[in-house]
Amino acid sequence: MRISIIGCGYVGLTTGLALSETGNQVVLVDVVKEKLRAVEEGRSPFYEPGVDEMILKHRSSGALSTTTDLGRAVEG
Predict the structure, then answer these.
(1) pLDDT at position 65, please?
(2) d(CA 21, CA 16)
């Protein structure tokens, strides 16, 4: 399933990672480019143990992507 999550803060990112872990394709949307850039570089924009490793895993598999474009995130 393809799921878009609006907001790449603590709740949005951790939810997206959990959904990626269960086999979903997740697109994280945020207007704060620094948060998205951190995820694109394989690191969390906040501290939470284990999150960086999960980001790297799901970014490399293609299960986790980011965008500032809400339209792109919700198109089927």
Answers:
(1) 97
(2) 9
Instruction: List pLDDT tens digits, range 58-69.
Output: 999 999 999 999
Could you tell me the pLDDT band of residue 76, with boundaries at 50, 70 and 90? low
Phi and psi dihedrals of 75, rounded to 5? -70, 145
Structure tokens at 25: 């394709």
Note the maximum CA span of the chain: 33
CATH number of 2-74: 3.40.50.720
Q: How far is CA 27 from the centre of its chain?
A: 6
d(CA 67, CA 73): 7
